[in-house]
Specification:
single chain, alpha/beta, nine-stranded mixed beta sheet, two-stranded antiparallel sheet, 12 helices, about 20% strand, binds alpha-D-ribofuranose, binds calcium ion
């Protein structure tokens, strides 16, 4: 029996983050020590309420720690929530009874890693501002993080925030660069792994709307996302954060990872937030082999089982 994953979930709680939190909460192989929150999909205040709601619906007894309200640079990037104004489908499902902790997310992360050196995996589902702030505050402690799993970057495909940048990186590219340069193992689940085989069709979404309490919760939380996708001509919705969490809770899900050097573009302009992946050992026509890889990028996964297996979990 492999050891349990002992994780901190860092989230900007939109509908797909909620699905990821529930997926982790339902896994017997995962111990969620705490949930830290940053602004991203929605404001910090709203993301905290959304996280509390997701935790309560699945009966998870963990604490929520509020973190960053703006990017490390202090410079806000104008974006909008594809999950509705409240980030959870504007469906009236955000009514948490609980409250967040007073302790700041960055202090919680550092305290937990200090107390459990080499054991904590941070699952980053939003902009990695809290992680970057923790690195800036106490790099030595953050070098004791076992692994960071990031839903972030476009992988080897197109972006969503811009044609080349993925939302979580775009919202705080400086933070992503700081994280990539830390030197602890980083696994990246990029948008390219969140493509059609992992999408929830409108038909399935309607079935979920009449399904178990957890299926109803996630269907309601993602209804506005489906509307947004349909506006782009796609009759389905995607749950990138839940796909990222699947790489942790389902050992058979990942089929291949590629060691790369990830270079995050922080300069202003059209490529801001783009992450260029140089494959280790690959000779590019115009440049020498790269040095040490800093990320392990998921490049093949059992995508076709994602929707059915996620719904098996939500029906529990
Ligand atoms: O690009 C997708 C990511 O941005 C997901 O984490 C989604 O929740 C948003 O944060
Ligand atoms: Ca997210």
């Amino acid at each position: 029996m492999s050891e349990k994953h002992r994780i901190i979930i860092d989230t900007d709680t939109g509908g797909d983050d909620a699905a990821a939190i529930i997926l982790a909460a339902k896994s017997p192989d995962v111990e969620i020590l705490g949930v830290t929150v940053a602004a991203g999909n929605v404001s910090l205040e709203q993301a905290v309420k959304n996280a509390l709601s997701a935790i309560e619906i699945v009966g998870l007894k963990v604490k929520v720690y509020p973190g960053a309200v703006r990017p490390v640079s202090g410079e806000e990037r104008e974006t909008f929530s594809v999950y509705g104004n409240d980030g959870m489908g504007d469906a009236g499902i955000v009514n948490p009874k609980g409250k967040a902790q007073k302790e700041h997310a960055v202090d919680y992360i550092l305290r937990t890693v200090r107390e459990n050196p080499g054991e904590i995996e941070i699952v980053a589902l939003g902009p990695v501002t809290n992680i970057a702030l923790a690195i800036q505050k106490d790099r030595e402690t953050m070098l004791k993080v076992k692994r960071i799993l990031s839903m972030g970057t476009a992988g080897f495909g197109p972006g969503n925030a811009t044609p080349v940048a993925e939302f979580n990186v775009y919202k705080d590219a400086e933070a992503y660069k700081i994280m990539l340069e830390l030197g602890v193992p980083v696994t990246v689940l990029g948008l390219d792994m969140d493509d059609e085989p992992t999408w929830t069709s409108e038909e399935t979404w309607r079935e979920m709307l009449n399904g178990s309490p957890l299926q109803v919760f996630i269907a309601k939380a993602t209804g506005k996302l489906l509307e947004f996708k349909k506006g782009n001509g796609i009759d389905a919705l995607d749950l990138p954060d839940a796909v990222a969490m699947a790489t942790l809770v389902w050992p058979d899900f990942v089929l291949e990872t590629t060691q790369c050097y990830g270079s995050c573009i922080t300069a202003p302009g059209e490529t801001h937030g783009m992450v260029i992946f140089y494959k280790e050992g690959f000779t590019y026509d115009s440049m020498p082999k790269i040095g040490k890889a800093n990320v392990s990028v998921v490049t093949k996964a059992k995508k076709d089982i994602f929707v059915s297996r996620l719904n098996e979990v939500l029906r529990q």
